[in-house]
């Protein structure tokens, strides 16, 4: 097995800075002080939450991910090299993703998980693929980077031992008598001399992210960048689950006042961060803040299965690059839940009552064997005043409605006009007169 070790040396600091916009970071570095809202560092346990976020991201590359201490994780990658390419290309993908997530990092490859973390933490950008070369690669590593048991590094330094090469050269029996079994077991796991069973990371079945600010925010525009980061974290987490989100909540905290809750609902599961953020931005723009915002949290518990929309190999992109689903959600967010609706067939043979309006919740397929109907249906029908060039189809008799005192008995025809148009007309059942009624036009 081959393990990629990822060490995040500035995890807590990166966790705070990644929620700040480039403008805020530039202002913070400026010699002239300016009152800028900035996220506070993660609360107690926050670094663990950040590490779990990185672990959720790592699942896109490997099914075996394990946390190592409070600042590192390992993932088994030998089985993934065939999919993601050789290690140099694979490592580049890992580094680019971590940079996009806002985390500074060190990465190394080794046959054991502990060695991968030690080599990465020591800043050694190496890829050790054979166990026989592991001791040589670990030799120059200082003991302060070897993740030794507590107290061992200081005691070994008093003996003049400062590198792993010096430590590995000492007799194990003497180390065990002087330092106990913990140090010897650590070295055995480091060099692959004994098994190193690990508990794989299992994320919860819901997403929760929270951020506190050092300054009160009075405009929704100051919330956009941290909310964007939270949405990107949600999308990363959803990608690891291979799922989507259909409803989530954005909660704005106002200190002693009640929390403002913005509910973002979608008609279909999604996980595109651009689409999700766009819906949040619209909600924020439409919301009047009752008080300054001191914190923000994002919760997602409605996480149904995500089925990507099928694509066309030869399809051309639309002019603005937006799909119908994205446009639909934008319209719902801007205009309201009840503004958009869809037509749904209902069990009534009368054309004017064969469709009903329903909320845009489902897209049902048209039943097989459904007769052709015009795209433009007139309600009510009007007398036909034009000329009939020919009858293309018909008659189709419709008799229905006796139960609600709106009985109809009609013979329908598809006709063609001299201009090449196709119309849907009818006359009373059994009639031979030319008293046609126009009920619709075909596209």
Into which percentage range does the β-strand content fall? 25-35%
Mean pLDDT: 81
Number of domains: 3
The helix-strand sequence is EHHHEEHHEHHHHHHEHEEHEHEEEEEEE
**Spatial shape:** elongated
Structure description:
The chain is of the alpha+beta class. Residues 26-45 and 317-321 have low confidence and may be disordered. The strands form four sheets. Strands 11-15-14-13-12 form a five-stranded antiparallel β-sheet, with no helix packed on it. Strands 2-3-1-4 form a four-stranded antiparallel β-sheet. It starts with a strand and ends with a strand. Helix 10 (172-179) packs across helix 11 (181-191) and helix 13 runs parallel beside helix 14. The chain is elongated and about 115 Å long. It has 14 helices and 15 strands. It folds into three domains: 3-29 and 36-191, no CATH class; 207-308 and 323-333, Dna Ligase, domain 1 (2-Layer Sandwich), CATH 3.30.1490; 369-441, no CATH class. The chain has helices at residues 11-17, 22-29, 46-58, 81-84, 87-101, 113-121, 134-138, 152-158, 164-168, 172-179, 181-191, 224-241, 273-285, 324-335, and strands spanning 3-7, 65-68, 72-76, 106-110, 207-217, 245-254, 257-270, 293-302, 341-345, 355-359, 376-383, 390-400, 408-416, 422-428, 437-441.
What brief labels describe this structure?
443 residues; alpha+beta; Dna Ligase, domain 1; 3 domains; five-stranded antiparallel beta sheet; four-stranded antiparallel beta sheet; 14 helices; 30% helix
